[in-house]
């Protein structure tokens, strides 16, 4: 990174790219409440797409809150991640990123591939199957969040893994929501 960070260039990029929300840091319940209120306010004119964006944002942000392996440097109690919502001409993009342990990568990649391979009816059946089965170790719920995101967006999960060191990967998930 250069010695001098240009805040104006950063500001201009946010304006030009129509970034509705961009955050990197500790993720807390309080922040998620504030971000969700902001998203609802910004998208109140886009009722159908706005509700979808809100729902998807909350699910993905909660995944960061529950599963990120990176902890803040203040008291070490909050999980760290990146959250963004971008408006394009025909759609919104909801993006999140967080550190995950290397041993979680194969299972997460397989789950995303399976979700992306299923049609709407098969996704619903898979969601019921997950809900009725016992949770995986380390899971904070029934494991249906990503399935619900795919159903809500009616679109694929664009998942990307970037190795950061031998023990961790940055898991970046982008979901596209058409404006309709």
UniProtKB/TrEMBL annotation:
It comes from the Bacteria. Pfam families: DUF6272. InterPro entries: DUF6272. This is GHKL domain-containing protein. The lineage of its organism: Bacteria, Pseudomonadati, Bacteroidota, Cytophagia, Cytophagales.
């Amino acid at each position: 990174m250069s010695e001098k960070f240009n805040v104006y260039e950063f500001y201009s990029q946010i304006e030009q790219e129509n970034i509705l929300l961009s955050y990197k840091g500790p993720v807390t319940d309080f922040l998620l409440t504030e971000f969700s209120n902001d998203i609802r306010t910004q998208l109140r004119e886009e009722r159908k797409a706005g509700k979808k964006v809100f729902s998807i944002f909350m699910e993905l942000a909660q995944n960061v809150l529950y599963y990120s392996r990176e902890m803040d440097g203040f008291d070490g109690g909050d999980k760290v991640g990146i959250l963004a919502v971008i408006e394009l001409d025909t759609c919104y993009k909801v993006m999140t990123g967080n550190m995950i342990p290397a041993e979680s990568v194969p299972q997460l990649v397989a789950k995303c591939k399976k979700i992306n391979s299923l049609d709407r009816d098969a996704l619903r059946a898979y969601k019921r199957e997950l809900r009725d089965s016992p949770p995986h170790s380390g899971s904070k719920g029934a494991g249906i969040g990503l399935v619900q995101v795919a159903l809500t967006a009616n679109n694929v999960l664009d998942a990307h893994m970037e190795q950061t060191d031998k023990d961790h990967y940055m898991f970046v998930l982008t979901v596209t929501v058409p404006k309709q």
